[in-house]
Amino acid sequence: MMCGAKRLSAAPDLRRPITLSVLHDIIRALPFVCRSFYQQKLFSLMFLMAFHAFLRIGEITIRNKQENHNLIYLENLTLKNFDSGNPYLILKMSNFKHNLSKQPVQLQILSQVEPDFCPVKKMREFLELRGKAAGTLFCYRDTRPIQRSEFCNILTLALSSAKYDTKFYKSHSFRIGAATTAHMIGIPDSKIRTMGRWHSDSYNRKVQGHSTETKCDMQNKIVDCRHLNLTIIPSHLPIHAISIDLSRNSIQIVKGFTFQYFKNLTELNLGNNLIQSIDKNAFHELHRLQSLHLDHNFLQVLPIPMFDNLVCLQHLWIYHNKLQNHQIDQMKEMSKILSLRTIYFETYPDFKFPSKWSTLSNLTDLEIFPRSAKVQFSKEMFVHIKMMPIMSLHLDRVPSISDDFFEYFPKLDSISLWLGNDLPKNPIDQVFRSFGVLKSRNMTNIEIAYSRFVNGFTLNQNRLKYLWSICLKRLTLHDLYIKDILIYAMQVFSVRSTCLEYLEIANNILLDSGGSLITILQNFKNLKVLKITSNWRRSRRKRSQPSRLFSFVLPKTLEELYIEDNLAGDMVNINFINGHNLRVLSFKDSEIWSCECSFAGVLNVEYFDMSGWTCEKLSINLLYGFPNLKTLKASGSLQGHGFVNTAKAGSFLSKNRRLQDINPSSNRISTIPKGLSLR
């Protein structure tokens, strides 16, 4: 009775649900908060499974060594139909809270449409990294179970990075969000109770408590109604608003004349909802509207006159809907928006650009989202139109691309190609050959990213030769599973790429050449920024023999150098040659076992990041080579056991008199050496 009274008088539950939209946002944030490629894949999968399988925190993490009786093990998982077109997962749950009958329960986790947020695809990718060693399903590389504190810490960092208030979201928010989402899409309560393995109907309070929130945040003329589980558009919104964000809710219908009094509205976001129908007069009187988000909904058709009054519309997001059967009519309708500058849309097999798009003289940015692996980017798309004045082109998935595709974009300045992690064949050779028609062109940016794990490849001369003939300023290669970079090919590339100012190679699997790449840096004539980050190597955890001196020969023009989550070994003395223009230096998240080292040749560096270093003791002259240092980052490291020479520890920062910002948070510091900040 006393326990019941406590529950009745308890404070209200402030935890908010992690709905699908929140889930996607925090997964997108993981690359910015995780220290390694493995950790990113691990927590991405843990978040997805916690949501789609209604998992409790005690089923995926431990608090101490004794608390492991409810953990899910690798043997509890079965992969089904992975050789067919409809794969799914089976989780056999034998031990879980409230299982009074001790009977096992089987949970079926289905594939999701979006590959980046599909628990089935992510499980397969993770298992390729994890291996087949017995133990808990979610584990560190050495098969130890995941600590609850680390899971909660990564969740908090991801929420913060995605701009959510962390005090309202906890680990249990995944279960609340899963139940709330299931309730909103009409799944019967009895089925939700079974899916979540609830012993009572207590989950109903959480679901109902989070399905009626309607309070929008209104500041000045900006209205924010995100993440409120709205099913209809509120009627109390201020008509003087210039921006209204209704994204990430559960709105299903946009009725006619809903926004007719919002004369000053310039931005409207209805993305990430459940919208199936929009009335032809829904946007009536929005003559000043410039940006319209309709993406990530369930629209099958758009009313023909819907765009007629949007005379100022410049940016339109309409991808991730179900417009396949009316694609031609929709594309023709969009050609009426003469003010259009940017459009995000999806394509299906046999898509062709309509001839009326030749009237869109202001259209400069195009983002295409193929919804089928059979889409081919080729000249067949241009049967009705000869060329397009596009300057920036993004292809969200590249099943196939012809050698002459870019010929039809004579003004192209920026290309972003996300290959797709669900394609049966790797289109990487087609991609590099397609750059052949850009020979001798001046271009600002080329990005190639997001391939499939089994589609790893070697970056060789036959591929790089198509890039060095372009006067390219910025090149980014990330999440491609590059297995190796042939040094001779990169050496030729560095000599011939005379226009290159920015180079990033990140989140790949460089088996051997990660360090060798540094040896040819000096060949780049105009390089200003170099990023080599999170390129996992199988050999990187083997401790190397300490050397007395390691030299980096830099391009004379280099201003920023990032070698993060990519180094492993003992550092003694590091000498930078040609480092007089260097202003930013980051060795963040490196496995540095010995910090008895010093730096030379970096007199003008103003920002240094040593966060995440694994060495416990520091040399007192570690930072002597940075007399102009203004910002020092050293968070999340193992420092705190002291200095090599404790007698002179107070002089550690004696040469850095221009320091303005120091961040040594999340370390093991127990005492501060006397005189450390005196100067």
TrEMBL record:
Q: List the GO molecular function terms.
A: DNA binding
PROSITE patterns the record matches:
LRR
**GO biological process terms held by the UniProt record:** DNA integration; DNA recombination
Keywords, sorted A to Z: DNA recombination, Leucine-rich repeat, Repeat
Task: Output this protein's name.
Answer: Tyr recombinase domain-containing protein
Keyword Repeat listed: yes
Q: What PANTHER family has UniProt attached to this entry?
A: P CELL-TYPE AGGLUTINATION PROTEIN MAP4-LIKE-RELATED, PHAGE_INTEGRASE DOMAIN-CONTAINING PROTEIN
- For the keyword Repeat, the answer is yes
Per the UniProt entry, what species is this protein from, by scientific name?
Mytilus coruscus
